[in-house]
Design brief:
Layout lengths: L14 H6 L3 E8 L4 H13 L2 E7 L8 H7 L2 H4 L2 E4 L2 H10 L3 E5 L6 E2 L14 E5 L8 H6 L2 E4 L11 H18 L5
Parallel strand pairs: 1-2, 1-6, 2-3, 4-6, 4-7, 5-7
Helix pairs in contact: 2-3, 2-7
Length: 185
């Protein structure tokens, strides 16, 4: 067993260094996420894996907010984010930028997150993932507009995971795929 590292030994980036650092070409879109704690958790995970940006839509809370800060622990200051009142508008803008937009939703024809045909974020193909409301998921109109859907395989009695947990799994999988095709960030 090894000694736990002190924060000062971890070589963490400052906020300014993070902003200048290379990012994974992934955008996370939050579609009407109610819980500020979930929003903060997505910021923190996005910071950990250098997500390019977060788009907060609809009723999703925005920084500065004490509940977001409680789980983000300052990641709301490092990760780039924007707000869009309508998720459909956000998806259209991303698609106009050439970003492939995938809803994270259990839907007909969705791609299992573990399958090799899942798109990999790259300089040639930026990816956005849309995560939905804690109760209703991603709006059907948004699912219809997206370029596809991906879903997490699940084997228990429940049919869903917490949105922040789902975001963590999806971001981690995208990060693994992204770094497998090139040098780590």
């Amino acid at each position: 067993m090894g000694r736990k590292l002190k924060v000062t030994e971890m070589g963490r980036l400052s906020v300014e260094e993070f902003r200048r650092a290379e990012k994974m070409p992934l955008t996370v879109v939050l579609d009407n996420v109610r819980s500020m704690y979930n929003v903060g958790s997505v910021f923190r995970t996005s910071d950990a894996y250098r997500v390019e940006r977060i788009v907060l839509c609809g009723i999703t809370g925005r920084p500065p907010h004490p509940e977001i800060h409680k789980t983000a622990l300052g990641a709301e200051d490092s990760v780039a984010w924007t707000y869009c009142a309508d998720t459909l508008d956000a998806v259209r803008r991303l698609q106009q930028e050439g970003v492939k937009v995938l809803a994270v939703e259990q839907a007909e024809g969705s791609i299992d997150l573990s399958q090799p045909q899942l798109p990999t974020p790259s300089a040639q193909q930026k990816i956005a993932v849309v995560l939905g409301n804690e109760v209703k998921g991603v709006q059907q109109q948004v699912v219809d507009l997206c370029d596809g859907c991906l879903e997490l395989p699940q084997f228990g009695t429940k049919h869903s995971l917490n949105v922040a947990t789902t975001a963590g799994i999806v971001i981690w999988e995208m990060f693994k795929r992204h770094t497998a095709t090139r040098r780590p960030l």
